[in-house]
Amino acid sequence: MRRRSWRYETGRLALSVAVALGQVTGMPGPIIDSLRSDTALWDGLRKVSSPIYHETRSVNDAPQPQEFARQAARIDLIVGERNRGRAPYGTTFDDVARRTPRAVVHQLAGQAHLAHLEAPDQLAALVSRLHHVTA
To answer: What are the residue boundaries of the structural domains of the chain, listed by start?
Structure first.
């Protein structure tokens, strides 16, 4: 396999960020341009965007919530408090929660969509508690 150049990868990741912000979240172009003008912020967004394609494909290929709910013995849904009820993540979460009435909702205080980056210890503690409930 041929190694891709740093410039190619940087451009590809920048495009991933722009698509995710503009097409997925509906963020207006001028706001995306403002984020892009902050070099440190944009570099950080590029770094965390590398798994976007595979994550999106996994989500799209996953069973529908009703099918998943029928198959699962237990369903725990985790949402960041700051996303609750707000588009796009909170409203998508609410849709999944409605379709899986047996699910238990767990809210991470003070967090939004990036709790795995901004508060990994808080998220890990919750997952650990949930694991011990079933162990």
So the answer is: 6-56, 64-134
- Which H or E run contains 31? helix 29-37
Assign 8 to helix, strand or coil.
Answer: helix
Going along the chain, which residue ranges are E strands? 76-80, 104-108
Q: Are strands 104-108 and 76-80 parallel, antiparallel or unpaired?
A: parallel
Residue 126 is predicted with a pLDDT of 95
Helix (H) or strand (E) holding 102: none
| Token digits of residue 12 | 């590809």
* Helix or strand (DSSP H, E) at 45: helix 39-49
Mean pLDDT for each 10-residue chunk of the chain (135 residues)? 55 84 85 91 86 75 74 86 88 85 90 88 94 75
